[in-house]
Every structure is written in structure tokens, then in C-alpha cells.
Write a structure and sequence with these properties.
Number of strands: 17
Largest sheet: 7 strands, mixed
Protein name: Transcriptional regulator
Shape: globular
Structural class: alpha+beta
Family: Belongs to the LytR/CpsA/Psr (LCP) family.
Helix content: 25-40%
Organism: Streptomyces longwoodensis
InterPro entries: LytR/CpsA/Psr_CW_biosynth, LytR_CpsA_psr
Strand order of the largest sheet: 1-14-9-4-5-6-15
Pfam families: LytR_cpsA_psr (PF03816)
Oligomer: single chain
Order of helices and strands: HHEHEEEHEEEEHEHEEEEHHHEHEEEH
Distance between the termini: 20 Å
Strand content: 15-25%
């Protein structure tokens, strides 16, 4: 979810920072890249055709074809900041939030599909960085894919579940998300019910609130103090945060405040892991420019249709044929 906002921001970076070589290099070095295409090879769904469109007489044509990204928020357990924000004590991490972001041809509208982390799936065999591969696992929680095989296995599991090729991968950890919100000056959200969740340390009355990074992260993570206490209730709050962040970026006036622009760009890139097709500031900027006409009101947010798992009342499975039809509409 945090990624759609970050990619919109990327379009502004080159305008404010291209002349400052040291700043550009610093931001570029912030980004962590993972060679997902190299690890997975050709045994994947077909890639969508990307159509270039002229953006000016002397400019490099911008792509306008449909594009699909897997966006993860990870509950990384490494680093003092992540631990302080609820990342846990061990050295592992799981995907705390998963969204498939499909940008339509023309790149003026998009659909964001949330995958509940409690969904039971068949996790395919995934290559390990140390060699060998993980075994196929049936009826396991979706978020274990990241835990056992990192970004590569997360992408492979999503592609297996959806039949949709992930053109890019974007991941932000706990501390990265909180820093982005703080650098933007906070984010304004409206909740339609009281939230009282001791687990995420979030206590909000129903109404409109301007949240700092730590509180916005707690809102993204809360599940016990609102709705039915399930992951499905939490997803609705996360989707509202996506749109609120898009609006905040659009109205932040970053181009007229270079110092603030740099703070936001530094916070964004420092918490970012991408595939190698987006692991440079230039590549992020190009993507951001191609999404410059994508406004929050043209972003549709949905959740993958699910039903209670027969094997466990606390888990869900994809509801068919509705889930299959949703993914087919995005191919």
C-alpha cells in the first residue's frame, strides 16, 4: 500500500534533485534491490506488453501499458526502529500487508487488491539464496512465503495464486513507513468507529484525525480493536490509508520546498526494497512520471474474495469462482 504513494512521489524527484549529484547518489544508494526475475526464470505467467508513448519531442517515450506490482509491508524484526514499532524480537520477518496494484493501460486508473495474510494457500517450491529450494507446502498461511523465501517466494506465491505476472516488487518495512508519514507532515484519515486496540497501542475515537508516522503505522496494523477483529477489517483501514497518502503527496507542495522534498525522498528510499527493475532513483523516477496522471479518485480498492477455511475457523481461503474472475480481469 505504501508503495503506490511512493511511486507517485518518484515523479517529482528528478525535478528537485537532479542538479545535486551527491543527494542523488545518496538516495540511489538507499534502495535495496533483489533480482527476482533472475531467481524465478521463465516459469511464470506471461508478461504484459508495455507500450511506449511519446512524452515530448526530445524526451524518452514513457510506457503507457498495463502494469502490475506486488506491494508488501513487512514486519521486519531487524533493527532497533523496527523492533520499537512492533517488529518482534527474532531475526525473521513476514509480510504484514500484501497488495497487488494493477495499473490499467494508459496509466490513468488502477485497482488495488488486498490479499488477507491469513489466507491459506499452496506455497510453491521457491529457490533459496543459499542454494536449493523450499518444498511445496499445502494449506499454509499466505504470509509464510516471505518468511521462508523472502521477496522471491512472495512473488512466486502470488503469481501461483493469481495467475498474474508481477512486473515489479516494492516492499517497505515498519520504520520506513513511519518515516515517510512523518516526512510528509503526517496523514489525515477518518474512521467511522472507535478503535481501542491494546495490541497495536492505538486508541482513536470515531472521526477525523491527523496522524504521525507511529500512529499511522498502528492504524495500518490494528485488527483487535475494530470491526470483527479479523484481518479483513484491518484491510479496509489500510486501503483508506493508501488513498490518504496519495492525497497527502499530491497536496504537499514538494516541488516548492526542496528541503522537504529531500526529507520525503530520503525517508522513502531508505525503507525501500524493490526488484532490480526499480532499484535506482532513475528507474523509480521513470515509473513515477508514467503514473503522473493517476489520481487517488481513480484508484479502486478491493479485497480478494474469501470464505472461512473448512479446516480452521480463524483462517480463510479464496472464494471461487469470484477470486478467479477477479484475477482474470487483471491479466
Amino acid at each position: 500500500m505504501w508503495k503506490a504513494a511512493g511511486l507517485t512521489l518518484a515523479g517529482a524527484l528528478v525535478l528537485g534533485l537532479a542538479a545535486a549529484g551527491w543527494a542523488y547518489r545518496h538516495l540511489d544508494d538507499n534502495i535495496t534491490g533483489v533480482d527476482i526475475d533472475g531467481a524465478l526464470g521463465d516459469d511464470r505467467p506471461a508478461r504484459a506488453v508495455v507500450t511506449p508513448s511519446a512524452s515530448g519531442a526530445d524526451a524518452t517515450p514513457l510506457p503507457t501499458g498495463a502494469l502490475t506490482l506486488l506491494v508488501l509491508g513487512s514486519d521486519s524484526r531487524s533493527g532497533k526502529e523496527n523492533k520499537a514499532l512492533g517488529g518482534g524480537d527474532s531475526g525473521g520477518a513476514r509480510s504484514d500487508t500484501a497488495m497487488v496494484v494493477h495499473v490499467d493501460a494508459g496509466r490513468r486508473s488502477a485497482t488495488v487488491v488486498s490479499i488477507p495474510r491469513d489466507t491459506l494457500v499452496t506455497r510453491p517450491s521457491c529457490p533459496r539464496t543459499s542454494g536449493g529450494s523450499t518444498p511445496v507446502a499445502h494449506g499454509v498461511m499466505f504470509n509464510t512465503a516471505y518468511e521462508v523465501g523472502g521477496p522471491v517466494c512472495a512473488v512466486k506465491t502470488v503469481e501461483s495464486l493469481t495467475g498474474v505476472r508481477m512486473d515489479h516488487y516494492v516492499e517497505v518495512d515498519f520504520s520506513g513507513f513511519a518515516r515517510i508519514v512523518d516526512a510528509l507532515g503526517g496523514v489525515t484519515v477518518t474512521t467511522d468507529q472507535d478503535i481501542d486496540d491494546d495490541y497495536s497501542h492505538l486508541h482513536l475515537a470515531a472521526g477525523t484525525h491527523h496522524l504521525d508516522g507511529t500512529t499511522a503505522l498502528a492504524l495500518a496494523r490494528t485488527r483487535h480493536g475494530t470491526g470483527d477483529g479479523s484481518d479483513l477489517g484491518r484491510i479496509g483501514l489500510q486501503q483508506e490509508l493508501v488513498k490518504a497518502l496519495l492525497d497527502q503527496i499530491a497536496h504537499a507542495g514538494l516541488l516548492t520546498d526542496p528541503a522537504r522534498l529531500y526529507r520525503v525522498a530520503d525517508a522513502l528510499t531508505a525503507g525501500l526494497t524493490t526488484d532490480t527493475g526499480l532499484d535506482s532513483l532513475g528507474e523509480l523516477t521513470g515509473l513515477g512520471r508514467s503514473l503522473s496522471d493517476l489520481a487517488s479518485e481513480r484508484v479502486t480498492t478491493v479485497t480478494m474474495p474469501v470464505v472461512t477455511a473448512p479446516s480452521d475457523p480463524n483462517r480463510v481461503v479464496a472464494k471461487q469462482p469470484q477470486a478467479r474472475q477477479l484475477w482474470q480481469s487483471l491479466r
